[in-house]
Amino acid sequence: MLALLIVPCLFMIILPRIPATWLKPAFVTMALADLLLALGALAPGNVIHVAWWPQLGLNLSLGVTPYNQPLLWLNALVLLSSAWTANRGNAWSPLSKGSIFWLTVAYVGVSLAFLSQNVLLYFVGFEMAVLPFFLLVRKDGGENRRVAAFYFLGFSAVAGMMLLAAVLTLVVHHVTGFHANHPVSVPVQFVVYLLLLATWAIKTPLWPFHLWLPKTHGEASTPASMYLSGVALKVAPYGFLLFSGILPAARHQASPFLAVWGGITLLAGSLLALGQRDLKQTVAQSSIASMGYVMIALSLGTRAGDQAAVLVMVGHGLASPLLFWIAGQVQKIQHSRQLDDLPGLYRKDPLLVTFLTAAAFAYMGIPGLALFPGEFGVILVALKHAPLTLYLIAPAIVIMAATWLRILARARFGGTETDGSFDSLSAVRQESWSGLWLSVPLVLVGLIPEWWIHLWRWGGLR
Amino acid sequence: MLVFVIFAPLLAGIAGALISSRLKSRTLSVTMTVLSVAVLGASMAVALAPYLELRWMFLHLPGYRVPFGFAAGTLPGWMAMLTALVNVLAQFYSLGYFARDSRQGYFQSVLLAFTGSMLLTVFASNLFTQFVGWEFMGIGSYLLVGYFRTQDNARYAASKAMLVTRIGDVFFLLAVIWSVSHGQTTITEINHHGAPFVAWALVVAVAAKSAQGPNISWLLDAMAGPTPASALIHAATMVAAGPYLLIRYFPVLSHSPGVLPALIIIGGATAVAAGVGAVGSQEAKRLLAFSTVSQLGMMVLAVGLGFPQVAWTLLVAHAFYKALLFFVTGVASHRAQSGLLSRLKATLGGFEFSVLFMVGALGVSGLPPTGGFLAKEALFHISQGSLFHMILDYTLSFVGGAYAARLVKSLAGKSRAPLAPISAWMLMPAVLLSLLVILNFIWHPWVTLPAISLLSAWPSILLVVSGGVAGILWNKPFRVFSGGLFTVSWKILYGLERMMMTIDSALSEGVWATRLAAGWMTGLVHLGGSGRARRYVLISGAALALFIIWNIRL
């Protein structure tokens, strides 16, 4: 388990000495090594515990649980696919030592947050995953990257402060682990819960706090967008899952309200996605909708709800990087991401359009693709515990279908059969094969979820 | 064997569609045809075999089990055979129809995958599995209808088909969710203990998928797809899956209050409206689409009257003659290079017209000696005793005769110039189907029908004939209302989306204003000067002033 963190750290140390031509192979090798480690070496129940400040109960405690294991797999896989995407000499997917370094830092931070077994390490991981993205967006990206980066930093900083305040309050009340047997008093629970709620609302994001997300994604480079939406977005909902365990009373009280909030986020996100004229922005706004599903499931506070939330997180963690990667390729081919420039795309790169179709169907919730088991599970638990949200979910499904059909109607159709040849695009076409990194798991997770969710029937830490 | 029947077409079709650009098109299409024949054979074997069952867990969350299950039985066996048969014929037809098309292999792969998803729904032993097949069929229809990628109407029709059926799918999903959350994981359990909610949700889902009620228009637009795809969609998959589902879930429909009368109203109204629409249409395929909707309405009506067996009879009969009509009319359109009724005159040879086409026309209008006649008579038989139902049936017979006659009239005639030769692949399915339509007159799978004497059937025959006369005399095209609501709903959706965007930009402005205010305050601090010492003096001075004011007030 420690190797999972040590490998990227070693990589960061030797990074300055790697010659430029070896940069991408080295990065990919590191990510692949970590993916293999995550797949092979992790087992629920691995725990590492090192005392750091025992008087306060602040210790370095890492552990693999059935809940974070799939997220760790996802983490390494998304890093691998982002690493594969980075290329030299392209403004939208740059390959420089700086960007690789900061992406790796974010990766270590996210892994730390997922592995953490007490509030201290979660906080450290959470913060480690923030700053790199500010730099990644600030350094390379589109025209307005300065504003976007500050949006991201401003929102994240507020969220971070709230989290710090909540963590400090918890530590003062001698609660440091996530399996506390003596929960704090109810008023304190409420204060902490409200502080945390603000954090999650900003970082997940929930609806009116989502403003940073489309701005950031609109300007971020392709690998940064892929990693940010694929995994870094899951840190906040995963934190919600962790912290809710020690705040049972507050969670119980907030549950109906939160479920409706999640439903509103879902509906608002899908409407906003429908309103975009830009492919990448559509993907970004759809992420908000998916996070709405996650929040509905988490708010219920049942084990089935938590598991459905992880299912959605994994599904979304595969579908959304795939779509961000597609948006990057479209940018390369068309030199534009506007929907109105899409018609005839299938003639220029049929393979890319195949991936786009698969990912769009995944977002529409078609069975056999990664998002379906999760969304199905969420609606299942919502019917029992918060039936009111079904009124928000049902129209959102239709709106989501309309959003993606509108994109497919442009990308899959149009043009004429006699258009000229596109030999100049052969280099981009060659790259299209890398969509397999994400689309194969996308199908596997959707078809046979039982292969990995049997983890949850393991009766261990939780 | 069951596994092969369900998954071989699905997997082979998907794989074929994905690798179609790397293979020789003709090789792929021949492979798909051979596979289709194998699937037909296997489905026959399954129908003959004793009861088979397959079941495994798809998803298992605490407190919820979502199994994937299949069971072969008599009704699924027959339905699967029907589907596989029409698929084989459509594949044969495509061999000729797309002979010079570079994407023939892709088309036939998708066709096979589409059939596979129908078989998934047919053999499914619970609602969840049926939902999966149902969704795959939606995708299949999207790809098939949108086959002609450069045409704007294909693009529009495919998106519309997917979106409209998606609305119904949401209700299907809710029905699935309800049944799963109550632990009902087989059809029998749902039929015994299902709630009225499930029944109603299924009715809405079927209405969307089978183009009933206000959903007619997507099926009409879906005619932008190629002919073999239309034949398959209309005869034995997708839209026919709706009545099939109603037949399977008849017990739960019948013990949910209000569902059967609602089915009578939906089915009856749709059947009449679509029949009238068929009389007024100018295009052959559009006429056939209207007639499909009308016949589906009759199946729904039969279920609503409480006789799923009659609906099944009609389903089988309709599958044969509708596929036949599509194939023969396709030949005519192929020769005329147009689908307009006014251009189709004298495009069929003597044999094609008199034997193949007329058999189909007799079937669709419900005249002997075809299976259509038996099914229509069965519908009359179960309507007896209620004046309203009888009038409904008579109207349907009259309208059916009228549109069939209109089609016959526009295709009739003897061409002076020799007709363009047609590939044997395109004729062979029609020959086979016309035999089946006639065979269907004396033989019915699964159900035994009451004996019907030809003499006592005189009122309906008379009505069909008089309808036919009226249809021949009527020449004026007109349109019927067929779901203009979608434009309105799209506008509402668009309005909502605008509203959301406005809120979003207002929020954005708000954040911007906060930033401005912060900047302004920073500026205020800088007003005293930019040096560190001066700022320190300013801040401490302000703090001192505040402190003094605070003390004075005390």
Automatic annotation (TrEMBL), chain A:
One of its GO terms (cellular component) is membrane. It is found in: Endomembrane system; Membrane. Residues 116-393 form the NADH:quinone oxidoreductase/Mrp antiporter transmembrane domain. InterPro entries: NADH_UbQ_OxRdtase, ND/Mrp_TM. Keywords: Membrane, Transmembrane, Transmembrane helix. It holds the Pfam family Proton_antipo_M. Its main location: membrane. One of its GO terms (molecular function) is NADH dehydrogenase (ubiquinone) activity. It is a multi-pass membrane protein. The chain crosses the membrane at residues 98-114, 120-137, 149-170, 190-213, 225-250, 256-275, 282-302, 308-330, 351-370, 390-409, 435-453. GO terms for biological process: ATP synthesis coupled electron transport; electron transport coupled proton transport. This is NADH-quinone oxidoreductase subunit M. It comes from Sulfobacillus benefaciens.
